[in-house]
Amino acid sequence: MRLHRNLCFAVIDGLHQIFNEDAYADKVVQSLLRRDKRWGSRDRGFIAETTYEIVRYKRLYGEIAAVKSPFSRDDLWRIFAVWATLKGIKLPDWKYFTETPSRKIKGRFDELSKIRVFRESIPDWMDALAVSELGERLWTNELTKLNEQADVILRVNTLKITKEKLQGLLYDEDINTEFIKGYDSALKLSERANVFRTEAFKQGFFEVQDASSQLVAAYLNVKPGMKVVDVCAGAGGKTLHLASLMQNKGQIIAMDIYESKLKKLKIRARRNGVHNVDMRVIDSTKPIKKLHNKADRVLIDAPCSGLGVLRRNPDSKWKLQPEFIDKIKSVQQDCLEQYSKMVKSGGQMVYATCSVLPSENNNQVDNFLNSESGKAFTFVKDNKVFAHKSGYDGFYMALLTKQ
Ligand SMILES: C[S@@+](CC[C@H](N)C(=O)[O-])C[C@H]1O[C@@H](n2cnc3c(N)ncnc32)[C@H](O)[C@@H]1O
């Protein structure tokens, strides 16, 4: 592979924003890709994949390059040189690379690869936390998988099209996809492509949604005509799936504490041809109280550490703090306690996260079931989805019934 100067500069600029300015990697990559209209899919792929890979292995590459954050531009070029050397890419004779010690880089890599926190590039506290909750073996396997690039998975909007028809339409736009066994509405891209540009996307025939995430709405046993509350709806990935499963019949009340997220959901609902969603901002306890004992189904897709989706958000490794995880756990317990009150007698509730930590998942459900508000509920089943076992994101979902 030959390195092109303007593409490498884009990567360095992106890394500077992500590492030094706390910007989100996905937003940074999106904006880098808009920089030059002449860039083709290979150029865009280089920028996105290189940036993500260096973010993923920041600790390892930084250690080999002997640089410490905050990184100067020279430091970032050193990190880049480590990445390129380990990839076996011949470094051009640019000034940034004149002193690159290629042999030393490979030697340091071999040494550091023996230690998990360097090999898999993860902060010590995060590694220790996960080991204490999951055990050494499970965590080592999971972490390795969470460092791989994720597949692009689509969820077919069955309100508008069948999986087979969508596959044909995408094929006509040069995008090959595969069915995934066990995931009814999923199509996996055989090769990465910018699906948002397709006519099929503009027509609302699909949403991009990981296969594990597609299990959550299905776990809630919704039926057309029901009253369903999606209480941490965000921009509505699962709300839209619920609407498809309910064939647009009945009522979904999508709630979130952020109005800006619900506004995005509104746009997506329109594109998806979804008509049965009402949006309500949780700005006091009132909108929740109004729904006490009213819902056939409640989905709590709780805010969490996101440790199950590190493949998509590798920068979380460097942005998350232990205090945040502690705080989010109390929000999760609060969500279970407050929002469970909306379930009517005989109704059901799903509690879900995109974390793999038991303390955010089954332990939270156990705590809830042992609490005063949880007394009315019985545990039906749960699904602990690990990336290294399923091949998709790490997730958790539990189904509870109210007597
Ligand atoms: C995991 S995300 C939801 C993702 C969304 N369900 C989807 O499928 O696209 C969690 C959401 O919970 C919201 N949230 C955080 N604290 C909340 C609270 N106390 N009550 C309700 N929603 C909350 C966040 O704004 C965020 O949108």
Automatic annotation (TrEMBL):
Sequence positions that bind S-adenosyl-L-methionine: D256, D283, D301
Gene3D superfamilies: Vaccinia Virus protein VP39 (3.40.50.150)
Name of the protein described by the UniProt record: RsmB/NOP family class I SAM-dependent RNA methyltransferase
Pfam short name (any one): Methyltr_RsmB-F
Residues of the active site: C354 (nucleophile)
Molecular functions (GO terms): methyltransferase activity
Keywords: Methyltransferase, RNA-binding, S-adenosyl-L-methionine, Transferase
Root EC class: transferase
GO BP: any one term: methylation
EC number, UniProt record: 2.1.1.-
Xref: InterPro entries: MeTrfase_RsmB-F_NOP2_cat, MeTrfase_RsmB-F_NOP2_dom, RCMT, RsmB-like_ferredoxin, SAM-dependent_MTases_sf
Domain of life, per lineage: Bacteria
Family named by the database record: Belongs to the class I-like SAM-binding methyltransferase superfamily. RsmB/NOP family.
Organism (species): Microcosmobacter mediterraneus
CDD domains for this protein: AdoMet_MTases (cd02440)
Residue ranges annotated for the SAM-dependent MTase RsmB/NOP-type domain, each copy included: 142-403
